[in-house]
Each structure stands twice: as C-alpha cells, then as structure tokens.
Amino acid sequence: MLIDAHIHLDQYQEEEVPLLLDEAQTVIAVSMDLQSCEKTLKLSRAYAKVKAAYGFHPEQSLPNDREKEALFDWIRQHASEMIAVGEVGLPYYRKQTHILDERPFIALLEQFILLAQELHKPIVLHAVYEDALIACDLLEKHGIKKAHFHWFKGSEEAIVRMIHNGYYISITPDCVYEAEIQDLITKYPLELMMVETDGPWPFEGPFDKARTSPSMMAKSIEVIATLKGITTQEAANTVTRNTKLFYDL
Ligand SMILES: [Zn+2]
C-alpha cells in the first residue's frame, strides 16, 4: 500500500474515513483554515495512519489579523501533533477569476515559511506556474530545505530550480491522462517524487465520476514506472521511501 502525500481528509464524510484509510499505508492530511485544522487534529488522534499538517489554503479570501493570529497561535500550541505546515501557498487559480493584489498572500506565505522554520517542520506548498518561482524566492531567502510542492505544474525554469534545491513534488492521478504531468514525471528525478490524491478533488478520464480515494495512486505508480522505465514495484518502493524520508515517518 502507498502513502497518500496530500489529502483533504477533513472534507470527506466521517463514515468514509475508515474506508479511505484501508486503501493507504499512511496519509498526510492537510488543512484549509482553523476549523479544518481542528477537524484534522481530531482525525489524527482517532487514526494512527493520519498525519496532520496545519495551514491556510491560498485559494480563498485572506484571514483578517485576528483570524491569522488565532490560527498561528493554534498551530504553535499543537506543534507536537503535526507533521508539517500546510497547505499554504499562493492563489494562482483565484487570480485567474478575481482581480487581486497578490502581495498580502506573499506576505502570509512568508509568515508560514518562518513558522515552518521555527517549528522545524517541512512545508506543503500550493504554488504553481509563475507562483512557484515566488515560492522559491521565499524558500531560498530563508534557507528552507524541506519543501513539498504538491500537484506541481510549472516552467522549465521552476523545475530546474526546484530540483537544484532538492524540493519534492507529488504526482496526482491526472498523470494518467494529462500530458503536462507526464512530461513533468520524465523531467523530475524519481528520488524527489511522491504520490498524492488531493482528495476529495475529482479526476477525469478513467476516474470520471469516481470518488477520489487512495487506491487511485496505483494507477499513478504505473504511469511513473512506465515513464521511468522501471517496474511498478520499484516505483512504489522508491516513492514510498521518499515520502517516509521527507516526512520523517
Ligand atoms: Zn490540496
């Protein structure tokens, strides 16, 4: 069984959780905001397979100062029960449909990077296309080594820079039908690769109308194995080892 390196477990119905967990060795459960952090904490206390990450998803309105302070205080108080800071990042998709000033989002991301540094935790990033370069600027500025760019998409420039810095990516089930993700798999070293579902986010192609669950990662492993010219067992072993190494599991 595989490790799901990025899932929004708190967004599923409570009764679905044990069934989802049956399909994975471990899951890295990320959070969207304070309420989501509290739910993720409960899940991690209830199930040993659930490793909690706490953060604020960037594809939504920014928290006000009071909300931000409450979230940061809460994360510091629960630092012993977290595996990483995440999901945090920059609002790439929101920017396509809203007129927004990205500067306060960048400032918030920098605060989360400093928090990860303070708590000695890895950071889980939502930073795609040109935003990946901004994230790299901030990570490099603060000398951060343990960064996981989940569902990464971006330029050759970003790919080269991230590989040079030893940053990890995770491959989503859309690698089965998206040429862009297949191209990324060929370019990125297997040693810096994990797999994820980003569930409950839905997928297309062979996953059309299916509820997203960790068993979908088996298909991603097949694609990775084919593109890297190795067996599925080798791909599964390496990706699992990478995830254990990165998250200190
Ligand atoms: Zn996510």
From TrEMBL:
A UniProt-annotated Pfam family: TatD_DNase
Keyword Ribonucleoprotein: no
Enzyme kind, highest EC tier: hydrolase
EC number per UniProt: 3.1.-.-
Keywords: Hydrolase, Metal-binding
UniProt key word Metal-binding: yes
Record GO terms (molecular function): hydrolase activity, acting on ester bonds; metal ion binding
UniProt binding sites for a divalent metal cation 2: H126, H150
InterPro entries tied to this protein: DNase_TatD-rel_CS, Metal_Hydrolase, TatD-like
UniProt xrefs under PROSITE patterns: TATD_1
Residues at which a divalent metal cation 1 binds: H6, H8, E87, D198
Family: Belongs to the metallo-dependent hydrolases superfamily. TatD-type hydrolase family.
Protein name, per record: Putative metal-dependent hydrolase YjjV
